[in-house]
Design brief:
The complex is a heterodimer of chains A (244) and B (370).
Chain A (H helix, E strand, L loop, with lengths): L6 H4 L3 H11 L3 H11 L6 E5 L5 H8 L3 E6 L2 H13 L6 E5 L13 E7 L7 H14 E12 L5 H22 L9 H7 L3 E8 L4 E7 L29
Parallel strand pairs in A: 1-2, 1-4, 2-3, 4-5
Antiparallel strand pairs in A: 5-7, 6-7
Helix pairs in contact in A: 3-4
Chain B lengths: L2 H9 L10 E5 L8 E4 L3 H13 L4 E5 L7 H6 L5 H10 L10 E4 L9 H8 L2 E4 L7 H6 L6 H4 L5 H26 L4 H18 L8 H22 L8 H16 L1 H4 L7 H8 L3 E2 L2 E2 L4 H6 L3 E5 L9 H5 L5 E3 L5 E3 L10 H5 L5 E5 L1 H5 L4
Parallel strand pairs in B: 2-3, 2-4, 4-5
Antiparallel strand pairs in B: 1-3, 6-7, 8-11, 9-10
Classes of the chains: A alpha/beta (244), B alpha/beta (370).
C-alpha cells in the first residue's frame, strides 16, 4: 500500500524531482518507468502526456523511439528541454508546454504509442475522458496506450487501508502546497469506455497502483467510438443532486 | 451538499477547499441557455447554486480549476487562469450542449483569466457578468446588460462580517487555544471580548477614522488605552475589573485591523507590501515579493495608459471592480479615478493592445526595477 500524493511537494523543484521521487518511493518510480519504457519498440513515435522532467522520455529515446512530450508546468518543460539538450536528444525528444486540453491540436493517426505515468491522478474526470478520446484519435490502428497511475483498491478494506496510509502524506502535501492528487476509481474501465481494447491491467502496491496496457482497435466503421453529441459527456456529469 | 465542508470553508477560508471540476445543470438549461463559469471553491459553488436556484435561473455552469480557492483570490494568485477556463471548455463537452459560443465569467476572475486568450484558444467569447451572484438573474433577463452597481465590488456590512469571519476565525481559534492552555480562567472573557470586538469592528469600520485598517485599530487602541489608564488611576491598585478585557480587546483589534485591506474588496492590502519591504517575500504557497501587485502597492510601479495605443476595447472599464477607468469622448480609456485602485491588475491583464502598462516609478528604479 502506497501513495504518490507527495509528488506535488517535489514538483516544486524540478532538478531534484526524479531523485527524490525515486528515493521516497523506495525505487518504485524508476521501476515503473522502466516497465513503461519496455513496452515501447525501437522506431516508434511516442506521445507522452505530462512528461515532467523527461526521465521516461529519455529512457524511451535510448530504446530507439522518438518522443513528443508535453507538460503544463513551465519549470518542468524548461528542465525537460535542458535534459534533451544535455543528452543530445533534440531530434528525438521534443517538449511542448501545454495541458491535455491542447491535445486536439495534434495530428490524428500519427503516434505508435501514448504513454503517461502519474498524470491521470492529477486530472479531473472530464480531462481524463478528453485525454483518452484524444489519445485514441492520435494513435494509429493498433497503437499502444500505456498508463501507470495510482488507483483506488477494489475491496472496501483495501480502500480503507489505502486512505489511512495516504492520510498523513496527503495532510503534509496539502499543508505545504495547498493541493493534492486523487487516486482514480477505475482506470482500466475508463480506458475501455474511451474505445480502447484492454490488453492487461497489473495491480501492485497492495492493489493501489495500476499499470494499464491497451491498444487502439483498427479504424473500421464498426469499432469507431460513439461520438453522439447528445449522449457524449452526459452520464458522468458531476452535478450535485437536485440540480436537474 | 456537505454541511461539514460548507462550515469548514466558511470558517477556514484561508485553506483551499476544492470540489470536482465539470459541468453542472442549473434548472433546465437548453441549447440556447447561458454558460456561466466559476471556480472550484466549495463555498463559492454552494452559494452560487443556491442563489441561481432561488432566482429560477436556467443555465449551464462550468466549474473550472482554481485549486479550491475563491474566484478573486485564485485569479490574483494565478490559480484561476486562462488555462483553467480553456481546459474546462474543451474537456467538459459544453460545445455539444449549446448552439452559441459565449461564456459568462465573473469579472473578479479578470486578474487571472484573459478573455482575449480564451477566445483565441477556444473560439468562445467571454462576457463579463455581474460581480455578485444575486445580480445574475437580472443580468440575464435584461439581455446581458450590466448597470454600474453590478460591475462594482462593494464592502457592505454582510460582506465585512463574511470575509472577516472567513479569514480571522483561525486567529480567534489560536487565541482561544492559547488561553485554554496558559490561562484557562481568562478563557470565557477572551471568547466573548474578542468575538464582540470582531463584530463591532467589522460593523463600524467604515466610520472609524483612518484610511488603512492599521490606522483605524491604532486609533481604537489609543482610546482603549486611555480607558485602561483611567481605570488604573480611579480604582485602587490592581482592582480595575475591566483590565483584562481591555487588554484582550486591544490585542484582538490589532490582529483584526492589521490586514483589513487584504479582506476588504475595496481597499488595497497593507500587509503584503509591508512584508515585501521587510524582505519577507512568501509564506508557504503564497508569495507577494516580486509580484507586480505588491510593486504597484509599494509605489515601485504605477499604471500608465499610452493613450495613442488604446484601441477602445473597453476591457479595462468592464473589469475594474472599483471604477478606476472610464471611456472618454474619443472612445479611448481614461484613468478617471486612480485613487480607488487596489492593484488587482485586472485592467493590466485584459488590455488588448498593451496600452496599459505597469511602469517602474523613480522609486522603483532606485530599488532595481528595470
Amino acid at each position: 500500500m502506497f501513495s504518490y500524493v507527495f509528488m506535488k511537494l517535489l514538483e516544486r523543484r524540478p532538478p531534484s524531482y526524479d531523485r527524490q521521487m525515486d528515493r521516497s518511493s523506495g525505487g518504485r518510480v524508476l521501476q515503473i518507468k522502466k516497465q513503461v519504457a519496455s513496452q515501447v519498440q525501437p522506431g516508434w513515435r511516442v506521445l507522452e502526456l505530462g512528461c515532467g522532467t523527461g526521465e521516461l522520455a529519455s529512457m524511451m529515446v535510448a530504446g530507439g523511439a522518438s518522443v513528443l512530450g508535453f507538460d503544463l508546468s513551465p519549470a518542468m518543460v524548461d528542465f525537460a528541454r535542458k535534459r534533451a539538450d544535455d543528452e543530445g536528444l533534440e531530434q528525438r525528444f521534443q517538449v511542448e508546454e501545454m495541458g491535455v486540453d491542447g491535445m486536439d491540436s495534434l495530428e490524428a493517426n500519427s503516434f505508435d504509442a501514448v504513454v503517461s505515468t502519474l498524470v491521470f491522478s492529477e486530472l479531473s474526470t472530464d480531462e481524463r475522458r478528453f485525454a483518452l478520446e484524444q489519445s485514441l484519435r492520435v494513435l494509429r490502428d493498433d497503437g499502444r496506450l500505456v498508463l501507470a497511475d495510482e488507483v483506488l483498491p477494489r475491496s472496501a478494506a483495501g480502500r480503507t487501508l489505502h486512505a489511512m496510509v495516504r492520510a498523513p502524506m496527503l495532510a503534509l502535501t496539502y499543508l505545504v502546497t495547498s493541493t493534492g492528487t486523487k487516486p482514480i476509481p477505475d482506470l482500466a474501465e475508463e480506458v475501455q469506455q474511451a474505445g480502447f481494447t484492454l490488453d492487461q491491467e497489473t495491480r501492485s502496491h497492495g492493489d493501489s497502483f495500476a499499470l494499464v496496457l491497451a491498444h487502439r482497435p483498427p479504424r473500421t466503421a464498426a469499432t469507431e467510438p460513439p461520438m453522439d453529441p447528445e449522449t457524449c459527456c452526459t452520464d458522468s456529469l458531476p452535478g450535485p443532486e437536485g440540480d436537474r | 451538499m456537505n454541511p461539514v465542508k460548507t462550515l469548514w470553508s466558511l470558517l477556514f477560508r484561508l485553506f483551499p477547499c476544492p470540489v470536482p471540476l465539470g459541468l453542472h445543470q442549473v434548472g433546465s438549461p437548453g441549447p440556447d441557455s447561458p454558460v456561466l463559469v466559476t471556480c472550484n471553491f466549495h463555498l463559492t459553488l454552494q452559494r452560487l447554486l443556491r442563489v441561481l436556484r432561488r432566482d429560477g435561473v436556467d443555465a449551464w455552469l462550468l466549474v473550472a480549476e482554481s485549486r479550491g480557492v475563491n474566484v478573486w483570490c485564485a485569479a490574483g494568485g494565478d490559480e484561476f487562469n486562462t488555462h483553467s477556463v480553456v481546459s474546462s471548455v474543451k474537456t467538459s463537452g459544453i460545445a455539444n450542449k449549446v448552439k452559441h459560443r459565449r461564456l459568462i465569467l465573473p469579472p473578479l476572475a479578470a486578474p487571472g483569466v484573459r478573455a482575449a486568450d480564451v477566445h483565441d484558444q477556444t473560439g468562445w467569447k467571454v462576457s463579463w457578468g455581474p460581480v455578485r451572484a444575486r445580480d445574475i438573474a437580472q443580468y440575464l433577463s435584461e439581455g446581458k446588460k450590466r448597470d454600474e452597481p453590478m460591475m462594482r465590488a462593494t464592502y457592505d456590512w454582510k460582506e465585512r462580517l463574511d470575509t472577516g469571519l472567513g479569514s480571522l476565525f483561525p486567529f480567534y481559534l489560536v487565541g482561544a487555544l492559547g488561553f485554554a492552555v496558559l490561562a484557562p480562567t481568562l478563557l470565557p472573557a477572551y471568547l466573548w471580548v474578542a468575538a464582540a470586538c470582531f463584530v463591532l469592528f467589522m460593523l463600524a469600520c467604515p466610520w472609524i477614522p483612518g484610511e488603512h485598517g492599521l490606522t483605524k485599530v491604532l486609533i481604537l487602541d489609543a482610546a482603549l488605552g486611555l480607558a485602561l489608564l483611567a481605570g488604573e488611576i480611579l480604582w485602587p491598585s490592581g482592582t480595575f475589573p475591566a483590565r483584562v478585557h481591555l487588554v484582550i480587546a486591544m490585542v484582538s483589534l490589532l490582529v483584526y485591523g492589521s490586514e483589513l485591506g487584504g479582506l476588504a474588496s475595496t481597499m488595497p492590502s497593507d500587509l503584503d507590501p509591508f512584508m515585501a519591504k521587510l524582505g519577507i517575500g512568501a509564506v508557504g504557497n503564497v508569495a507577494w515579493a516580486g509580484t507586480v501587485r505588491t510593486e504597484l502597492l509599494n509605489g515601485y510601479r504605477e499604471l500608465q495608459l499610452e493613450h495613442e495605443r488604446c484601441i477602445g476595447c473597453r476591457q479595462c472599464y468592464q473589469v475594474c471592480p472599483l471604477g478606476v477607468w472610464e471611456m472618454g469622448q474619443d472612445r479611448r480609456a481614461v484613468q478617471a479615478r486612480p485613487q480607488l485602485c487596489t492593484a488587482c491588475r485586472a485592467c493590466l491583464v485584459q488590455c488588448r493592445s498593451g496600452a496599459i502598462q505597469a511602469r517602474p516609478t523613480r522609486l522603483g528604479l532606485e530599488h532595481g526595477l528595470g
